């Protein structure tokens, strides 16, 4: 159930839940909710409601896959990244990624830092005077979702795109 994983994490911690490393196989944001600092139609909330598939690798036990829904108010799982989970040893459907326990992996997505000017040049290089703002916003959102852009970098570039339209 969306939004109930914090309680599940606490319950499992109190009643013998198993903690194990996991690798993110897939992660899709279904929708966002919560407050934000923007006022436009392209602003999103700060809580990502996601469907996540993991390969859980408990020590001394066979690995297993789990697919579940969880809300993430901060860092989000990204394909190829690692996470620490807690689960019920008798019921693998009772599982949650532990708060603050998502880590960049060695998969295809890597965090990089670019200056605002470099990023602006990326979006404007070769773009015709009549650029397609929705397409550019989609590209920008993709970079943000993959962790290439921080929230602040995303907001700066989004504002630049919207101001030019």
Q: If you had to describe this structure to a student in words, what would you say it looks like?
A:
This protein is α+β, with helices and mostly antiparallel strands and 165 residues long. It folds into 2 domains: 5-103, no CATH class; 116-164, no CATH class. The protein has helices spanning 5-14, 116-124, 133-145, 151-164, and strands at 18-33, 47-56, 64-72, 82-88, 91-103. A 5-stranded antiparallel β-sheet has the order 3-2-1-4-5, with helices on one face. Strand 4 and strand 5 form a beta hairpin. The longest helix is centred in the C-terminal third of the chain and has 14 residues, at 151-164.
Defining traits:
165 residues; alpha+beta; 2 domains; 5-stranded antiparallel sheet; 4 helices; 5 strands; 28% helix; elongated
Assign the structural class, choosing from mainly alpha, mainly beta, alpha/beta, alpha+beta, or little secondary structure.
Answer: alpha+beta
Q: How large is the count of helical segments?
A: 4
DSSP, total strands? 5
**Envelope shape:** elongated
Number of domains: 2
Report the biggest beta sheet as strand number plus sense, adding barrel if it closes: 5 strands, antiparallel
Summarize the entry for a quick read.
The protein is of the alpha+beta class and 165 residues long.
List the helices and strands and how they pair.
Layout: H1 5-14, E1 18-33, E2 47-56, E3 64-72, E4 82-88, E5 91-103, H2 116-124, H3 133-145, H4 151-164
Antiparallel strand pairs: 1-2, 1-4, 2-3, 4-5
Helix pairs in contact: 3-4
């Amino acid at each position: 159930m969306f939004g109930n994983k914090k309680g599940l994490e606490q319950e499992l911690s109190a009643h013998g839940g198993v903690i194990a490393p996991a690798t993110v196989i897939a992660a899709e944001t279904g929708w966002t909710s919560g407050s934000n600092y923007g006022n436009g139609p392209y602003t999103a909330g700060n809580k990502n409601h996601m469907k996540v598939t993991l390969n859980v690798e408990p020590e001394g036990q066979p690995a297993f896959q789990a697919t579940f829904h969880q809300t993430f108010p901060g860092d989000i799982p990204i394909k190829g990244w690692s996470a620490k989970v807690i689960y019920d040893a008798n019921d693998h459907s009772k599982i949650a990624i532990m708060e603050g326990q998502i880590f960049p992996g060695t998969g295809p997505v890597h965090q990089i830092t670019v200056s605002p000017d470099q990023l602006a040049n990326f979006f404007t290089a070769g773009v015709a005077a009549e650029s397609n703002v929705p397409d550019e916003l989609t590209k920008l959102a993709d970079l943000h979702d993959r962790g290439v852009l921080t929230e602040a970098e995303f907001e700066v570039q989004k504002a630049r795109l919207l101001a030019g339209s």
